[in-house]
Amino acid sequence: MAKEKKLTKTGLGKTLYYPLITEKAVGMIESQNKLAFVVRDSATRTEIKQVVEEQFQVKVVGINLVRDRKGRKKVFVKLDKKFKAGDIAIKLGVL
To answer: What residues are paired with 66 via a beta bridge?
Structure first.
């Protein structure tokens, strides 16, 4: 079972619930410069992009949304090459 950590910064809990900590998500951090989060069901791509860019001071290049079998809405956020997903993952306690 994946370890789940609630985000406590202001504004994050409304859109981004917690970072996804699975073997696949950690692999994406290292190989594809992507971060994974579980988000609110009604969150839009634009809203997610804005929250991530404001809270982590990064540039978002792309966003993929998926639903898992548990009904959760997951988002995979690809960061610009200038920023490292690993640095943010360390701040969040993922790595």
So the answer is: 74
Close Cβ partners of 87 (under 8 Å, ≥ 6 residues apart):
none
Q: What is the pLDDT along the chain (95 residues), one digit of tens a residue?
A: 444 444 545 456 689 999 999 999 999 999 999 999 999 999 999 999 999 999 999 999 999 999 999 999 999 999 999 999 999 999 998 88
- Cα dist from 36 to 19, 23, 76, 95, whole Å: 6, 11, 5, 13
Inter-CA distances, 83 with 6, 36, 78, 93, Å: 23, 15, 10, 17
Residue with tokens 């949304």: 65
Residue 52, SS3 per DSSP: helix
CATH class of the domain whose range is 12-92: alpha beta
The pTM score is 0.83
